[in-house]
Amino acid sequence: MEYLLALRMKRKERVYKQRTTYLSLTEKDCLKSLHLPRHVVTEVCHLLSKELACKTTFPLAVRVTSALRFFATGSITSAEGIATRSMISFVASVSQELVRHADRFIVFPRTPASQDQVKKAFKDKFGAPDVLGIIDCTHVVLRAPTENCSMYFNNEGSYSINVQIVCDASSKITHIFTHFPASIPDSSILEKSEIPSIFESDPPPDGRLLGDTAYPLKTWLVTPFSKPKTKPELSFNIMHLDAFEAMDRTVAMLKKRFRCLDKTSGPLQYSPDKVALFFAACCVLHNIAVRHGCPVKLDEDAITRIRRIDNAMHMPLTEPKTDTVAVMGRAQLAQQLCEN
Fold it and tell me: Would you say 166 and 134 are in contact if contact means Cβ atoms under 8 Å apart?
C-alpha cells in the first residue's frame, strides 16, 4: 500500500501547454497571421461564445484563432501546439456556428429602404441605374471527391465546387449558393437558387441584377450585349463592365483574405460539403470585415489573376435562352444611358 501511495505521489502533475491565441498577438501580427484585426476577432469570439462555450476543454479564443488561421492560410499545420485532429474539429465547429449566423450577415436587400440604398451606391459609383447587385459564380478547388468525381472536374483539369455570389457596390456579399460541382453551369445554379423566386415574387424588388454572358437575359437580370454595334450598346457595355468591377473586387478580397479559397494555396483536402461550409463561413467573416471597414490590399494584377483562374475553370458557355421583353428592355436602357 505504501509503495502504491509513493508512486501516486511521484506522478507528475499534468502541465497544459501554453498556446498562442490572437489575444497574445500585436495588432500587426494579428493582421499578418489571421488577416483580420483584433477587434474583429473579438467580435467573432463574442458572436460564437454561446454556442461554443462548453463544447470542449479548449478555450474559445484558441478554437477561433485556430480556425481563422486555417482560413487565412489554407494550412492545417500552421497552428503550433495543437493536434491535427483537434485543429480539424475547431475549423468545423467554428465554420458551422458562423454559418448558423449567415442570415444575420448575408442579407439580400428586400425592403424599399435597403433597395434604395443599394441602388444609390451603384448609381453614384458606377453610373448604373436601378442595380440591386452583381451576380456571378466562382470556383473553389478541392481534392478529387470520392463520390461523383467527374461532376467536380472543371475545364482547367482540376476539381472544384462552383459557388454563386451576389454582391453590392461596396463588395458586401448579399447572397450565396454553395453546393454545386464545377460541371454545373452558372445559369443552372441560378435556376435552382432562390434568386428567381425573389425577383418573380409579387410585388418584385424594385431593381435588377447585372450578370455576365453565362446567364440568360431577363427583365430582372441584365447581361451585356454579346456583339455591340451601336453607340448605345457600346455605352451600355462600358457601364456594365465598370459595375462588374464590384464583383471582381469582392471575389479578389475574399480569396486574398481567406487563402484557403484561393487555388494558389493548393486544393482543399476536404469533401465538397465541407468546402462549401468553409466558403460560407468565410463569406460571413468577409461581411463582418467589410462592415468594420477592414481593407484588403489589392492591385489590378491580383484581381486579374483571380478572374483569369475562375474563367479558366468555368465550363464552355452554351447559348442562353433570350426573353423578348428583356431584349427590348435592355435596348431601351442602353438608349437612355446613351442619351444621359
Answer: yes
Q: Which long-range contacts (CB under 8 A, 24 or more apart) does 259-265 make?
A: 259/35, 259/71, 259/72, 259/73, 259/74, 260/70, 260/71, 260/72, 260/73, 260/74, 261/74, 261/140, 262/74, 262/306, 263/139, 263/141, 263/158, 263/309, 265/73, 265/74, 265/75
Q: Rounded to two decimals, what is the model's pTM?
A: 0.90
Residues 236 and 225 sit within 8 Å (Cβ to Cβ):
yes
User: Is the distance from CB of 258 to CB of 282 less than 8 angstroms?
Assistant: yes
Q: What distance lies between CA 147 and its chain's CA centroid?
A: 24
Whole-angstrom CA distances from 180 to 262, 298, 307 are 18, 28, 19
Q: Cell for 37? A: 484585426
Mean pLDDT by groups of 10 residues along the chain of 340 residues: 38 47 88 93 91 74 91 75 81 94 95 96 94 96 94 93 97 95 94 95 92 93 91 93 95 95 89 96 97 89 88 76 86 87
258 in the Ramachandran plot: left (φ > 0), alpha (ψ -120 to 50) or beta?
beta
Give the count of beta carbons closer than 10 Å to the beta carbon of residue 333.
18
Q: What is the rounded CA–CA span in Å between residue 145 and residue 152? A: 8
Separation between Cα atoms, residue 219 and residue 199, nearest integer Å: 9
* Rounded Cα distance, 239 and 337, in Å: 9
Centroid of chain to Cα 94 = 16
* Angle, CA 193 vertex, CA 188 and CA 194 arms, to 5°: 145
Question: Whose CA is closest to 10, among 2, 21, 22, 19?
Answer: 2
Cell of 210: 447585372
